[in-house]
């Protein structure tokens, strides 16, 4: 179960207003449950947990094991909902110091020429033993036409075909919509392995489809446990959505009362990928029709030495969301020393987790005193099961809360505006 601590936000909210608004949250939850709200043909992120597709999970696991056995580098090529979730899971559940031999890299998530140039140089350079690097590529794009992803894919796959010849076909995997789109034409022509993103699931709700599951499995994470963690949270919240409704109610009231920003962060660096995932999930879902809380992110305690000043004493228009891990996976005791020249002797015997926890408690106290409502979302432990639960918890909370704003959570019409202007400047023909 995902736990929350909302005491630090409730103190900013009047009881009568809370009770009245909670009814709105119940109605919004019913809209999700009965598929009666706007965008109700985009609720597949619930369907896949109600009816898990074990055959697909197994196919992904088998394929991932084969890639892990043969690859030096696995490139995730996608943007927005097509990569943020996988990146968040991988960063939360792997330390980066495993030295497993398989390197996960990203492409197609921006149009920086220098980055892609340097990435290509790196791919072309030999391994330490002088052998060429064995590169695998997963292009992920539901529409199959997103420019950032398409350009990186063109660059990398052209090189892979040149480098590996026919073998390139076995090293390129495409994850896209069932049919239509340029990417489907390429898949058909080249014969790349394909995974389908269901038509009723939008990008930012797609992490528990092959969009996220294949890269995560390639990273060595147990996707069965992750997936069934989400299923467990789905089942729990169907019968007892109380925590979700409470959270959505508080967020809605703060928004209505003029709050403009939600600073989403954690004292656990491993959770910062999820701060970015939540930023996208909430931001693209609620930021419409002149509404929405701007989701900013902050990594603590690092950012207490920068925007912490603003959170404490800047404009009083922000709330704060903290992702908390109760029990650390691993920890470190403060080193004992015979002398106390660094004056840190008073911390001997404590662990970093304990000190970090005190930093968190102190920060919450200070921010509450500074007039910032604080919501804590708590995972018992950082493991695949809890992360699966966390993902569904936020997907459902987002849908309920955005329905309360009377907004369709599942579209992103504003994203088209920059694309049209960019394509005009680039001279794209319709
Ligand atoms: O949530 C969304 O729908 C978006 O963020 C998309 O995931 C993003 O724009 C990438 O789109 P596509 O997968 O079609 O390349």
TrEMBL record:
<dbReference type="GO" id="GO:0004347">
    <property type="term" value="F:glucose-6-phosphate isomerase activity"/>
</dbReference>
<dbReference type="InterPro" id="IPR001672">
    <property type="entry name" value="G6P_Isomerase"/>
</dbReference>
<keyword id="KW-0413">Isomerase</keyword>
<feature type="active site" description="Proton donor">
    <location>
        <position position="284"/>
    </location>
</feature>
<comment type="pathway">
    <text>Carbohydrate degradation; glycolysis; D-glyceraldehyde 3-phosphate and glycerone phosphate from D-glucose: step 2/4.</text>
</comment>
<comment type="function">
    <text>Catalyzes the reversible isomerization of glucose-6-phosphate to fructose-6-phosphate.</text>
</comment>
<dbReference type="InterPro" id="IPR035482">
    <property type="entry name" value="SIS_PGI_2"/>
</dbReference>
<feature type="active site">
    <location>
        <position position="419"/>
    </location>
</feature>
<dbReference type="GO" id="GO:0006096">
    <property type="term" value="P:glycolytic process"/>
</dbReference>
<protein>
    <recommendedName>
        <fullName>Glucose-6-phosphate isomerase</fullName>
        <ecNumber>5.3.1.9</ecNumber>
    </recommendedName>
</protein>
<dbReference type="GO" id="GO:0006094">
    <property type="term" value="P:gluconeogenesis"/>
</dbReference>
<dbReference type="GO" id="GO:0048029">
    <property type="term" value="F:monosaccharide binding"/>
</dbReference>
<dbReference type="InterPro" id="IPR046348">
    <property type="entry name" value="SIS_dom_sf"/>
</dbReference>
<keyword id="KW-0312">Gluconeogenesis</keyword>
<dbReference type="Pfam" id="PF00342">
    <property type="entry name" value="PGI"/>
</dbReference>
<dbReference type="InterPro" id="IPR035476">
    <property type="entry name" value="SIS_PGI_1"/>
</dbReference>
<keyword id="KW-0963">Cytoplasm</keyword>
<dbReference type="GO" id="GO:0051156">
    <property type="term" value="P:glucose 6-phosphate metabolic process"/>
</dbReference>
<dbReference type="GO" id="GO:0097367">
    <property type="term" value="F:carbohydrate derivative binding"/>
</dbReference>
<keyword id="KW-0324">Glycolysis</keyword>
<comment type="pathway">
    <text>Carbohydrate biosynthesis; gluconeogenesis.</text>
</comment>
<dbReference type="GO" id="GO:0005829">
    <property type="term" value="C:cytosol"/>
</dbReference>
<comment type="similarity">
    <text>Belongs to the GPI family.</text>
</comment>
């Amino acid at each position: 179960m995902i736990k929350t601590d909302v005491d630090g936000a409730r103190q900013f909210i009047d009881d009568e207003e809370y009770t009245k608004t909670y009814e709105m949250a119940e109605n919004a939850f019913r809209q999700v449950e009965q598929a009666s709200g706007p965008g109700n043909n985009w609720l597949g992120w619930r369907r896949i947990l109600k009816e898990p597709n074990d055959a697909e999970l197994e196919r992904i696991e088998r394929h991932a094991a084969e890639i892990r056995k043969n690859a030096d580098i696995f490139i995730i090529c996608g943007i927005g909902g097509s990569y943020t979730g996988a990146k968040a899971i991988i960063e939360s559940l792997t330390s980066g110091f495993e030295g497993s031999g398989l390197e996960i890299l990203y492409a197609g998530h921006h149009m920086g020429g220098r980055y892609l140039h340097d990435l290509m140089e790196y791919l072309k350079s030999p391994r330490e033993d002088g052998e060429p690097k064995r590169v695998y590529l997963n292009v992920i794009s539901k529409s199959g036409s997103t420019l950032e992803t398409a350009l990186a894919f063109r660059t990398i796959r052209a090189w892979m075909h040149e480098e590996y010849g026919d073998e390139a076909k076995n090293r390129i995997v495409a994850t896209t919509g069932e049919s239509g789109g340029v990417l489907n034409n390429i898949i058909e022509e080249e014969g790349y392995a394909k995974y389908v993103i269901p038509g009723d699931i939008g990008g930012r709700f797609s992490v528990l489809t092959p969009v996220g599951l294949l890269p995560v499995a390639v990273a060595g994470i147990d996707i069965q446990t992750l997936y069934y963690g989400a299923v467990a949270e789905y089942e729990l919240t169907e019968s007892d959505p109380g925590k979700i409704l409470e959270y959505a109610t508080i967020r809605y009231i703060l928004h209505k009362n003029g709050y403009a920003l939600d600073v989403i962060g954690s004292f656990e660096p491993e959770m910062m990928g999820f701060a970015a995932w939540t930023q996208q999930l909430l931001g693209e879902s609620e930021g419409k029709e002149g509404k929405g809380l701007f989701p900013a992110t902050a990594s603590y305690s690092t950012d207490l030495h920068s925007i912490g000043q603003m959170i404490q004493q800047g404009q009083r228009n922000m709330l704060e969301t903290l992702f908390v891990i109760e029990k650390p996976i691993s920890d470190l005791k403060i080193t004992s020393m015979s002398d106390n020249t660094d004056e840190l002797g008073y911390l001997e015997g404590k662990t970093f987790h304990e000190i970090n926890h005190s930093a968190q408690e102190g920060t919450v106290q200070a921010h509450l005193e500074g007039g910032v409502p604080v919501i804590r979302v708590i995972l018992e432990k950082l493991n695949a099961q809890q992360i699966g639960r966390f993902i569904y918890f936020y997907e459902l909370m987002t849908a309920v809360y955005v329905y309360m704003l009377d907004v369709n959570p599942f579209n992103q019409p504003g994203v088209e505006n920059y694309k049209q202007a960019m394509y005009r400047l680039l001279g794209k023909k319709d």
